[in-house]
Amino acid sequence: MAQRRDFVRPGTLLGLGAAALGLTALAVSARARQAERDNPPTGRLIEVEGVQVHYAEVGEGEPLVLLHGNGSMLQDFMSSGFVKAAAKRYRVIAFDRPGYGYSERPRSTIWTPAAQAELLRSALHRIGVSRALVLGHSWGASVAIAMALEHPEMVRGLILESGYYYGSVRVDVVMMSGPAVPLVGDILRYTVSPPVARLLWPAMIRKLFSPAPVAATFGGVPSEMAIRPAQLRASAAESAMMIPDALAVQSRYRELSMPVAIIAGTGDKMVDLDGQAVRLHRALPSSSLHVVEDCGHMVHHTAPREVMAAVDTVAQAA
């Protein structure tokens, strides 16, 4: 008698796989909504050119605009010891850049540093700021530079912290760009990417701060907000743009006529000190270079006094 063999049809397997992905997407969406309920907006929401922009403001005096890095949000700055010190002398304005926190990032726009700078410039005009000191951290430094290049009349001085200014070979950038790929990326960020990001979060934060320990002030940054599908897409898109943007703009740095302070940590594992900060300082002879020993990428948390000193240096020079 012939032995009977049971098998599962390919169509059935596809159906089960699709159902599993669908259930995972529902769970991811529910967790993202819960993160937003647990972490409501801490600042003000305004509409700028049809885009919702979220910002927080503290202190009085000359405006000091803060632009956070890739994957972060305004709480990164607002929870740091730096803002507490800066608010004693400056009107500190921290933005959620497009796609982060509670600022929207419409897919109809390619959100280059220049596009983000234009949106945030308009937002500043909406809240009565026509001229300001601008501090950009990491990817936010690229947005700060774009604002200074395209609207020099608005940027009184630049403070660039842990920025990436010159194109280089970066394998990690390719790996982090996956969730930005159309269709495939949409599937990833609603299924695989959030749980993977949740697992990798502690190690990633240690790398950002190393060789210094993770600052207690960073506890004010809600990790669940950072791994929502929409924010993962924004982060992946900026990873993909990082090298091309640096290559496109690096020949224009000498156009920066305002005072510039460059801040970097000697142990930064995200950007190379000599290849980025020191090289930019050489290209801008009138800039000031502030190198913090035994400090990683998150200087405003680890060494807020040094960042404050750089801001004051620029303010006085301006």
Please name the fourth-level CATH homologous superfamily. Alpha/Beta hydrolase fold, catalytic domain
Instruction: Give the low-confidence spans.
Output: none
Examine the secondary-structure arrangement and name the CATH architecture.
3-Layer(aba) Sandwich
CATH topology: Rossmann fold
Q: β content, as a range?
A: 15-25%
Major sheet description? 8 strands, mixed
Tell me, briefly, the overall form.
globular
Q: Which class best fits the helix and strand makeup?
A: alpha/beta
Q: Helix and strand string, N-terminal first?
A: HEEEHHEHEHEHHHHHEHEHH
CATH level 1 name: Alpha Beta
Write the layout of secondary structure elements.
Blueprint (H helix, E strand, L loop, with lengths): L9 H29 L5 E5 L2 E8 L3 E6 L7 H4 L2 H6 L3 E6 L17 H14 L5 E6 L1 H12 L4 E7 L9 H6 L7 H6 L3 H17 L13 H4 L2 H21 L10 E6 L7 H11 L4 E5 L6 H4 L1 H14 L1
Parallel strand pairs: 3-4, 3-5, 5-6, 6-7, 7-8
Antiparallel strand pairs: 1-2, 2-4
